[in-house]
Amino acid sequence: AQSVAQPEDQVNVAEGNPLTVKCTYSVSGNPYLFWYVQYPNRGLQFLLKYITGDNLVKGSYGFEAEFNKSQTSFHLKKPSALVSDSALYFCAVRDMRAAGNKLTFGGGTRVLVKP
Amino acid sequence: EADIYQTPRYLVIGTGKKITLECSQTMGHDKMYWYQQDPGMELHLIHYSYGVNSTEKGDLSSESTVSRIRTEHFPLTLESARPSHTSQYLCASSDAAVSGIYNEQFFGPGTRLTVL
Predict the structure, then answer these.
(1) What is the sign, positive or negative, of the torsion defined by CA atoms of B89, B8, B2, A63?
(2) In the structure, what pLDDT confidence band is assigned to residue A98 with cuts at 50, 70 and 90?
């Protein structure tokens, strides 16, 4: 079984400050990890993924995420947040051993960047 | 332009009506998915398909049904809508990379369904 936890329902940050959105996962094998962002009344947009290789993954809009196998975490980060980064963020995991491409999503974290 | 489309974007309908939510993708992806997103934001997989004539139930039990007669088309049907079906429904698709590793899922804009 695979699962994802996003421990924070909401993250508030001032514009220009660093932004971190936390994600921890549980899989029986090696994980594929993804971050998505959802703006109001829109579908999910892909930000970045970790499949293998370098633990620091760079994605769209200046976001990056660090894969930490020992802590089973994949936190999303942005060095300097913008007001336009205010949205819902979802972490997702897929167990490499699992058949098909079923993703398990976290509960989502709402990010509010204040000017 | 390669994309994934959902229609309608918004639907308000009375109890007992039959509805079909449309999802089409022009990316040539073989895998397609339906998610239900509740008001608390969480996403739940309700149906998926690995290709034509393949459909499977997802992790969350749903009274809806799906079909996959064509690669690009994955409609979801509710035979008799109820207020408990009120939700946002998101369609997604994905494909396998040349290496055999599955790529990320691409999402449509969603259909917000309200059943009165």
Answers:
(1) negative
(2) low
